[in-house]
């Protein structure tokens, strides 16, 4: 619940002409459950997925008067909901190809729609928005014709499978250690570079002050006037 509350805090909401707290994105919270018989150490593992989804409502620009960032968000919401509607229509008509990959939303919902899942859809309606209230039940009604194919998800815990996971775990741990060493070396090099930069800055400052002091203490030489001869020779002017 703590993770769910944390995710809800960073959920994007903003005010529009139609709603003071309008959802500017869809929200998906997924829980993965793994269970097995406590009396069977190497028994099969049952895997279940619980997906809690809150879909943002479609918007009409003529009503929301959205502009700028709000307009872009609304367009993305409407596009994903349109793809979702197409997927449900394709499933209802028994099409061989289902365009799940046309949006991130439908990719995440692929198992819940026509896959290995049991789905429950709740439509939110309000008398304050007549047009949206009518379209919501129509959408919910269309999903009733979608048939899922449920089965129990079992991960076989055979010796070969377990050995494969153990090898994968060791490989990942080795790679993680190598990355940690690289990061440590990079941090050390960074500190050395910073110290070298500070040392050079100090030397530049000292040299600069020395040059300024030397320039101030050295008298300026008086330049003598020179006379140019007819043949381009230069000779100093004689003084009495």
From TrEMBL:
GO terms for biological process: microtubule-based movement; mitotic cell cycle. SUPFAM superfamilies: P-loop containing nucleoside triphosphate hydrolases. Keywords: ATP-binding, Coiled coil, Cytoplasm, Cytoskeleton, Motor protein, Nucleotide-binding. GO terms for cellular component: microtubule. InterPro entries: Kinesin-like_fam (IPR027640), Kinesin_motor_dom (IPR001752), Kinesin_motor_dom_sf (IPR036961), P-loop_NTPase (IPR027417). Its main location: cytoplasm. Residues 155-203 form a coiled coil. It is found in: Cytoplasm, Cytoskeleton. It comes from the Eukaryota. SMART domains: KISc. GO terms for molecular function: ATP binding; microtubule binding; microtubule motor activity. Residues 215-240 are annotated as: Disordered. Pfam families: Kinesin. Residues 1-146 form the Kinesin motor domain. Belongs to the TRAFAC class myosin-kinesin ATPase superfamily. Kinesin family. This is Kinesin motor domain-containing protein. The lineage of its organism: Eukaryota, Metazoa, Ecdysozoa, Arthropoda, Hexapoda.
């Amino acid at each position: 619940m703590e993770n769910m509350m944390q995710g809800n805090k960073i959920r994007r909401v903003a005010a529009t002409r139609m709603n003071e707290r309008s959802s500017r994105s869809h929200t998906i919270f997924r829980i993965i459950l793994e269970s097995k018989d406590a009396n069977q150490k190497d028994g099969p593992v049952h895997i279940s997925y619980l997906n809690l989804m809150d879909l943002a409502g479609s918007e009409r620009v003529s009503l929301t008067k959205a502009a700028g960032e709000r307009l872009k968000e609304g367009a993305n919401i409407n596009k994903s909901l349109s793809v979702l509607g197409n997927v449900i229509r394709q499933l209802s008509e028994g099409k061989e190809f289902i365009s799940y990959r046309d949006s991130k939303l439908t990719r995440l919902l692929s198992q819940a729609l026509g896959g290995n899942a049991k789905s429950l859809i709740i439509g939110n309606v309000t008398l304050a928005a007549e047009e949206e209230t009518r379209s919501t039940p129509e959408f919910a009604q269309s999903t009733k014709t979608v048939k899922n194919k449920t089965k129990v998800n079992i991960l076989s815990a055979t010796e070969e499978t377990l050995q494969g996971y153990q090898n994968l775990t060791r490989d990942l741990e080795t790679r993680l250690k190598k990355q940690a060493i690289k990061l440590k070396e990079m941090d050390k090099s960074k500190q050395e570079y910073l110290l070298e930069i500070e040392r050079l800055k100090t030397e530049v400052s000292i040299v600069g002050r020395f040059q300024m002091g030397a320039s101030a203490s050295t008298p300026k030489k008086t330049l003598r006037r020179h006379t140019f001869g007819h043949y381009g020779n230069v000779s100093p002017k004689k003084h009495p």
